[in-house]
Task: inverse folding
């Protein structure tokens, strides 16, 4: 007589991530290590573990619930398909996965006694843990090292300082050019001094000559 059993496990991923990976052929294959053909369409046929398991999708609620019919190559013609129901509930550490496997042939107890744990639960935990580690390492590789960021931060003000220094040099050069341009105008002042000196000298000579003329006139008398 067929029987049913329920198992639970915690997966380090969100319910939506578990849901999508289960229904994705590539992700399902990577999780379990066996070739799988999956679909996210209700009514679609599915297979897993190199076609050891075959079935179809019965009910799909994204991020919450997956119901599939399953039968293994060990099922006989007299056996009806078994039904698996995966319920996904969010937890702080990931997802609480509750598996109910019903209508299982009485003589096939291996699924409950380690089959699901060894072939699905444990590989799924390892798969999502590895994926989390890869995602955590990716930003660290893309971001520059802390030392490089510090060097960049220290070096950032240097460029404005160089520009300011160059601007100061240009200003100084302009000032020197302005002084040179104004210098010839300043030299014109000594010329006035020279003409004044000449005037004073001429006046002195005139004064010196005037007594001589007076003395000459006196002698003529």
Result:
């Amino acid at each position: 007589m067929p029987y049913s059993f329920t198992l639970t496990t915690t997966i380090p991923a969100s319910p939506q991530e578990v849901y999508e990976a289960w229904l994705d052929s590539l992700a399902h294959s990577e999780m379990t290590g066996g070739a799988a053909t999956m679909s996210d369409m209700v009514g679609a046929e599915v297979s897993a573990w190199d076609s050891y398991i075959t079935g179809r999708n019965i009910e799909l609620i994204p991020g919450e619930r997956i119901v599939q019919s399953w039968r293994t190559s060990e099922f006989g013609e007299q056996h009806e398909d078994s039904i698996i129901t995966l319920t996904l509930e969010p937890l702080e550490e990931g997802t609480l996965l509750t598996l109910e496997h019903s209508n299982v042939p009485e003589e096939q107890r291996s699924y409950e006694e380690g089959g699901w744990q060894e072939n699905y639960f444990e590989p799924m935990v390892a798969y999502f843990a590895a994926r989390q580690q890869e995602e955590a390492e990716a930003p660290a590789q893309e971001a520059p090292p802390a030392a490089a960021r510090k060097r960049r931060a220290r070096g950032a003000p240097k460029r404005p300082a160089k520009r300011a220094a160059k601007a100061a040099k240009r200003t100084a050069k302009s000032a020197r050019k302005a002084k040179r341009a104004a210098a010839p105008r300043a030299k014109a002042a000594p010329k006035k001094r020279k003409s004044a000196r000449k005037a004073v000298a001429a006046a002195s000579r005139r004064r010196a000559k005037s007594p001589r003329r007076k003395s000459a006139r006196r002698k003529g008398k």
Q: What stands out?
A: Residues 186-190, 213-221 have pLDDT under 50 and may be disordered. Residues 158-220 form the longest helix (63 residues). The chain has five helices and six strands.
